[in-house]
Write a structure and sequence with these properties.
Number of helices of chain A: 8
Helix content of chain A: 55-70%
Shape of chain B: globular
Structural class of chain B: alpha/beta
Mean pLDDT of chain A: 88
Low-confidence stretches of chain B: none
Distance between the termini of chain A: 45 Å
Largest sheet of chain B: 6 strands, mixed
Number of strands of chain B: 10
Radius of gyration of chain A: 23 Å
Strand content of chain A: under 5%
Strand content of chain B: 15-25%
Largest sheet of chain A: 2 strands, antiparallel
Structural class of chain A: mainly alpha
Low-confidence stretches of chain A: none
CATH class of the largest domain in chain B: Alpha Beta
Strand order of the largest sheet of chain B: 6-7-8-3-9-10
Mean pLDDT of chain B: 89
Distance between the termini of chain B: 39 Å
Oligomer: heterodimer
Number of strands of chain A: 2
Largest interface: A-B, 26 and 37 residues
CATH topology of the largest domain in chain B: Rossmann fold
Strand order of the largest sheet of chain A: 1-2
Chain lengths: 254, 302
């Protein structure tokens, strides 16, 4: 079974891979927040360049990143089209009643650059360490236990769900089912999702029983020993300096 | 002999009113190895969930080493009874094997060093050393099954319960798992209860067999249970293949006093047969043979 693992390349060897997980989350967190609030296209572009530099440094395959950045385009492309039409301002050109405004276009570009920069940073962060490590680091950063446990179970059972989904789908296909966008096709898809829900509900009961039998009392569970080194502190400082530097050169928040 | 498990008149019904257990009384000695057999929906899993306190009986009639399981704290409970569930994906709920095997000991409040030691030991016992950082979705079913056992062993339970341990396993993993269960019982003295449909494996793991069908239908040695064809028929159960083979041999005049259930017993029975007959066994066909064979095959086909 081929899974869409986000941490497929977590075992690679690069300076970014070696950063201590907590420091990595903090540093990337700072950069992501800073990129998202960048007030001008120039500032946002600098963050995008920074994100790409970090990505190159991390040696993650470009195709792996591209595949995931594509997802964000689903949201970005409509913004690029709609913003110039809805934000009033200097008209660039018009077609009938539709008027493309310059302000709208600039704003849309700003949003696009910011989101691409942020998503590259997120993928680089998640892609350079194992997902369970990220969760353990989050737990050590005092993220509430309930959230950690929810993420933990999501991560563990998403694969089981994929397996179950594929099993139901292939047994449907074995009986000649082919998806068509019509009433029958949609109702079959509905059945599939319904089956998946029932199965996951039943599994949840069994998992809970297994947890009880291992003494689960609701307390968050975390075991990890991370060590912060000088290099980690240096990376974090560089991230903070870079973020504040960009804000000093191009002041302004959105 | 100390009593490990004592259940008296246990009743249970589902919320829709279906009775799953009726007046079940079972007592198991310390170090004993018991197989519970019964058709689907016979109440095996429900019985097991009572044994580890996942389902609490209102009558306080499930005693583990003389103590009521319902009043025990979680820590006490888990170091007494460990359950290995049928589907390892239900039991391995943590992201890595290490986290999973360490889950129980952590809940017991042990120190980090002790947890590490127990995880290492448990993984070594099941032959999965070096799997600490592996994620369950990249492991084979057999490996997941052994990891689930390690996750229970790390709590060092005195009683181990297996729900369908050999289901869905390939022959090699199956025999490996059966050997593991046997070793744990013989070498570590762990009281073991196994639920299984795999009747061919039952005689090689259990000294005692309980037939469950909502209530305890029969309780005896594998020999007693598997020689009672009527009992098996009524409960939709099968006899081991070796047993069937010797019944067919019986139709050809090769009779033995006790029908063997395992390969070892089969060799012993043949030794005895040939010993009594001057070193050879005779297979004879007469006019009744084909009738007898037909009858035997008919009797064993469910």
């Amino acid at each position: 079974m081929k899974y869409p693992d986000i941490d497929k390349y977590a075992e690679m060897n690069s300076p970014i891979h070696h950063i201590e997980p907590r420091i990595k989350i903090i540093s990337f967190g700072i950069l992501i927040v800073a990129a998202v609030f960048a007030g001008s296209i120039r500032a946002a572009s600098l963050f995008l360049i920074l994100a790409v530099l970090i990505l190159i440094l991390s040696r993650l395959p470009f195709r792996f990143i591209l595949k995931r950045v594509k997802v964000i385009c689903v949201f970005v492309v409509p913004i690029l089209v709609l913003m110039p039409l809805t934000v009033p301002g200097t008209p660039l050109f018009s077609a009938g009643i539709l008027v493309f405004s310059k302000e709208g276009l600039l704003f849309a570009v700003l949003v696009a650059v910011r989101s691409v920069a942020a998503i590259i940073l997120v993928i680089t962060m998640l892609g350079t360490q194992r997902f369970d490590t990220t969760l353990k680091a989050l737990s050590m950063l005092y993220v509430p236990g309930i959230i950690i446990q929810m993420l933990l179970f999501t991560y563990r059972y998403i694969y089981v769900m994929i397996d179950e989904f594929m099993k139901i789908l292939s047994s449907m296909q074995a009986k000649g089912y082919r998806f068509r966008f019509n009433r029958h096709g949609l109702s079959m898809t509905g059945n599939l999702i319904g089956m998946l829900l029932i199965k996951s509900y039943e599994r949840a009961e069994r998992v809970y029983q297994a947890m009880i039998s291992k003494g689960y009392t609701g307390k968050p569970i975390s075991f990890s020993s991370f060590k912060i080194t000088g290099t980690d502190c240096l990376f974090c400082s560089v991230a903070i300096i870079a973020a504040s530097g960009i804000y000093i050169i191009y002041p302004g928040l959105l | 002999m100390k009593k490990a498990i004592e259940i008296t008149n246990l009743n249970h019904q589902y919320s829709d009113g279906t009775i799953s257990l009726e007046d079940v009384s079972v007592s198991v000695d310390e170090g004993e190895m018991v197989a519970v057999i019964g058709q689907n929906g016979a109440g095996k899993t429900t019985l097991f969930l009572h044994l580890n306190g996942s389902i609490k009986s209102s009558d306080n009639n499930v005693l583990i080493f003389g103590e009521d399981i319902g009043t025990m704290s979680a820590e006490e409970r888990i170091c007494r009874v460990g359950v290995v569930f049928q589907d390892p994906d239900d039991q391995l709920f943590m992201p890595t094997v290490y986290d999973d095997v360490a889950f129980g000991p952590t809940n017991m409040g042990l120190s980090k060093e002790e947890i590490d030691r127990r995880v290492k030991e448990a993984l070594e016992t099941v032959g999965l050393s070096g799997f600490e950082d592996r994620v369950p979705h990249h492991m084979s079913y057999g490996q997941k099954k052994r990891a689930a056992l390690a996750a229970v062993l790390s709590m060092k339970p005195k009683i181990l319960i297996f729900d369908e341990p050999t289901a869905n396993l390939d022959p090699k993993s199956r025999s490996l798992f059966i050997r593991l269960i046997n070793d744990l019982n013989k070498n570590n003295g762990i009281t073991t209860i196994v639920a299984m449909h795999d009747v061919n494996a039952v005689p090689s793991v259990a000294e005692r067999v309980i037939v469950l069908n909502g209530k305890v239908v029969a309780d005896g040695t594998p020999q007693e249970i598997f020689s009672d064809i009527n009992l098996l028929e009524e409960n939709y159960l099968e006899v081991p293949e070796i047993c069937k083979m010797f019944c067919i041999l019986g139709c050809y005049g090769c009779r033995c006093d006790t029908v063997p259930l395992t390969m070892e017993e089969a060799a012993l029975a043949l030794d005895k047969m040939t010993g009594e007959n001057g070193g050879s066994a005779v297979i004879m066909r007469d006019e009744d043979t084909s009738e007898k064979v037909k009858g035997t095959i008919c009797r064993f086909s469910l």
